[in-house]
Design goal:
This protein has about 290 residues and is of the alpha+beta class. The chain contains nine helices and 14 strands. The radius of gyration is 21 Å and the shape is elongated. The chain starts with a helix and ends in an 11-residue tail after the last helix.
């Protein structure tokens, strides 16, 4: 009996050891609805279950020795590429904050919301019938290149250690953060079917698509909010080629997709928050759950 128990336990120990030995980056698909932290916890739970850990609770940090984090928060209403660092790969996540990202955003003219997207309450309605495709294309020029942008109130940015979005939901008054420099590498209008329009965006770290759409609506003498948002690329990871969907969250698929750490990257000191995060990007770099 003892021999049978030992032989059954060996594969479990082996799988867990392989999982804990992983170091690098890979990308997963985040669907609409859950937060980025929820998705990361679901991924971790799936991997621990596969490794034979009974009743894994990814939120209990002390009881688990699997280090994992993500390099760039997506709003709960958004979907697309979410880059994950595992093991020493968490030290590489700061590069995901500073690197370029691509988005496809569907905006809706004529309505502004408090969250600047479809999850919020409508706070303003204005006419939009005067807006043409040429009007939008002309105004987009002012939002391309190195620009100043005010982050949305409902965001992952923090005041006194708490997220602005959490403070707002608790009824606290929150002042807008000052405008800060961001970079937009490419910005084009893909489709215009009033009241909806579709933008293709490539930007740098710290950029908020919701603020862009809100500002664009104002520039057009109307108002607008984000109806749908998809991140199609983050760093070298693309939605089509690299993002693993939930049914692909297995040790085998991650081993196949993993971009391993180099020796120099594994030697990085990651005890200090990356500079990009201190600038207030909508990211939670080292969520070691």
């Amino acid at each position: 009996m003892a021999g049978n128990i030992g032989s059954a336990a060996a594969p479990i120990t082996s799988s867990l050891s392989k999982l804990q030995a992983l170091n690098g980056l890979f990308a997963i698909y985040k669907k609409q609805g859950p937060t980025s932290a929820d998705v990361l916890n679901a991924l971790k739970e799936a991997l621990l279950k596969e490794a034979g850990v009974q009743n894994p609770n990814p939120r209990k940090r002390k009881k688990q020795s699997l280090k994992m984090g993500h390099g760039g928060t997506l709003d709960s209403a958004a979907s697309g590429v979410l880059v994950v660092g595992i093991g020493n790969g968490t030290k590489m996540l700061s590069t995901m904050l500073a690197g370029s990202k691509k988005y496809v955003a569907v905006g809706e003219l004529g309505k502004a919301t408090d969250t600047l997207d479809a999850t919020g309450s409508v706070i303003l309605e204005k006419d939009f019938e005067h807006i043409t495709r040429l009007d939008i294309e002309d105004k987009l020029k002012a939002f391309t290149g190195d620009i100043m942008q005010v982050p949305p109130l409902y965001s992952a940015l923090k005041k006194d250690g708490q997220r602005l979005s959490v403070l707002l939901k608790k009824g606290h008054k929150v002042e807008a953060k000052p405008a800060r420099p961001v970079t937009v590498y490419n910005l084009t209008l893909q489709e215009f079917k009033p009241p909806h329009f579709t933008l293709d965006i490539e930007c740098g770290g710290g950029f908020y698509v919701r603020s862009l759409v809100d500002d664009l609506g104002k520039a057009l003498s109307s108002c607008a909010h984000v109806k749908e948002l998809i991140r199609t690329k983050q760093g070298q990871f693309t939605l089509e080629e690299h993002a693993l969907h939930e049914e692909q969250w297995t040790l085998e698929r991650i081993l196949f997709s993993l971009q391993p750490c180099s020796e120099s990257e594994q030697a990085l000191d990651c005890t200090k928050p990356p500079e990009a995060d201190t600038l207030g990007t909508h990211s939670e770099v080292k969520m070691k759950t």
